[in-house]
Design brief:
- By secondary structure, the protein is mainly α.
- It has one domain.
- The longest helix is centred in the last third of the chain and has 31 residues.
Length: about 130
C-alpha cells in the first residue's frame, strides 16, 4: 500500500457507507445496515489515520514514512485517547463522540451478525461432534 492508495480511501468508504445505509433501509436489509455502520466506522478511523500522518509527516513529503505513521494508529488506544481528551477541545469532543458511537455501532453490527448466524445455523452444525 502506498500513500497514493490511502488518500481516496476515506471518501470512498464514507460514500459506500451512505449508499449501503440508504439501500439497506429502503430494502429492509439488516445485513446492509450493519455493514453500513461498520464501513462508516472505518471511514472515520481511516480519516483519523490520515490526520495523524498529515500532521506528523505531511502529504507528499516521504511516502514511506507517511504510510508507516498511517498504519500506527490502533483503534483500542485511539478510543482511550479520545475518551481522555474529550473535554479539552470542542472539535476533538465531536470527533471523539462520533468515533465512540461508530465503534460501538460496529461492535453491535458484528455481534448481532454473529448471533444471527448462530441462531439460524442448522442444529446439526451446532451439536458437538464425538471425539475420535
Amino acid at each position: 500500500m502506498t500513500a497514493r492508495d490511502i488518500l481516496p480511501l476515506t471518501n470512498d468508504l464514507a460514500e459506500l457507507a451512505s449508499q449501503m445505509l440508504t439501500d439497506g433501509v429502503r430494502e429492509g436489509n439488516q445485513a446492509k445496515i450493519r455493514r453500513a455502520v461498520s464501513t462508516a466506522y472505518y471511514a472515520l478511523f481511516h480519516r483519523l489515520c490520515e490526520m495523524c500522518a498529515d500532521a506528523l509527516i505531511g502529504r507528499g513529503k516521504s511516502p514511506d514514512a507517511y504510510v508507516a505513521i498511517y498504519r500506527l494508529l490502533d483503534d483500542g488506544p485511539a478510543r482511550k485517547a479520545l475518551v481522555e481528551g474529550k473535554g479539552s477541545d470542542k472539535d476533538l469532543s465531536r470527533v471523539a463522540d462520533a468515533f465512540l458511537e461508530l465503534q460501538d455501532g460496529r461492535h453491535w453490527a458484528v455481534m448481532t451478525h454473529r448471533r444471527d448466524e448462530e441462531a439460524t445455523a442448522p442444529a446439526v452444525s451446532r451439536r458437538k461432534r464425538p471425539s475420535s
